[in-house]
Amino acid sequence: MNDATDLILGCVATGTAVTVMVYAARDWIAALFSKMEEDIGDKLRRLRASPGNLRAWLRLWLVGIALAFFGFSLGLNSLIFGIVSAAFLLAAPWYLVRRLAESYRRKIEDQLADAMVTLSNAVRAGLSLAQSLEILAAQCPRPINAEFRQIVAEYNLGKPLDRTLTEAKERLKSENFSLFAAAVLAGHEHGGRLSDTVERIASSVLELQRLERKVLSETAQARKSAVYMALSPLFFLAAFYFIDPDNTTALFVQPLGHLILATAAILNVIAYIWARALLRPDI
After folding, report:
1. Mean pLDDT, all residues of the chain
2. Rounded to two decimals, what is the model's pTM?
3. CATH fourth-level superfamily of 104-217
């Protein structure tokens, strides 16, 4: 048989094997897909993005992963590169959405202390809680003003205030906002000096933010070093190509070279994520 026939038979055999495996694990795949959709949808709602066509995008995403896997496995005759590329395409978008959601949460928490001080001053001036929240929706900077606008809009439409605050707390997944919501709900339901309670919470949040900024400033150089270390293998690989092009090219054409490159890439990603986790302030 010629090479074309071998390639066709190999593609048919691989496709049949993958089809049988997918069919056998269809329940597990459906459960995993639903969990993935729920997780990404929660992060998109936190980013105030509509997850309306999320299922269609996820299916397109999985098709792209399959195409990348078969493209590298059959087109470049490298199963290792196919697995690594599929794993990268599977993890990268989820990691990006998670980082964006975390960045959005941090922006909310950075602006929350000033918002609580404004609320305390408005309540102390004699305004009702609903009027004070309207002031926050109008005067606070983005992105926290969007959250208060949604709270005020839902309250004006007839939804109870405790429900709007509870939904915002579940949407943002912020400990500081949970404290703020608990204080507002306690003052709304049981009375008491809401302004003093909110002001004390704001002072605590400001102190926590000061400590976090101090930790971030002291670990800034270490975080930059982690980025440089993650990018350095690419520069070393390019330098080795000019020094010894034959052996460097062999890394991309030989199965052992594929294994070495894949192992190095995986270890490099793990080291970077580990370094970021160690340098993340947790106060």
Report:
1. 78
2. 0.69
3. Type II secretion system (T2SS), domain F (1.20.81.30)
